[in-house]
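S.,

Sequence below, as promised.
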Amino acid sequence: MYYETIFIVNPDVSQENTEALTDGLIQRVEKAGGRIVKREYWGSRPLAYAINKRKRGHYTLLVTDGEPQAIKALEEGIRLEERIMRFLTTSITKLSDDPSPLMRRRSSTAETQETKSEAQDEAPAEASADVAQSSEETVSEASA
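The prediction came back faster than expected:
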């Protein structure tokens, strides 16, 4: 059976410490006989509502394969960790290798921005070529 766990870490904690915290939780799951199938760090994102007077948090997704004891070990580790503000675990029946919808949206946004920057890099080169060509035409008209 597969389980999907999303947890939100206090925004005062650095990204490196969030990754270290996630590694510790993964070790707990593996000791309990489970395995992590997917791990995604979604970054620091705004919360829908304030939690402990915080308006942002580090979001992390873990998809776990294993017995319910592995999930109990993960949730126990999360409950003991003061830096984690909220978490939610759901069981899923079908495992997908595709990135989560949030990661797909983030990668498509990055690709769009990359395409725009490439277009902006090409635009000045084309503009300077047009300017050079019009300058040549002006010079040839003036000499005629």
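The mean pLDDT is 82.

Coffee later?
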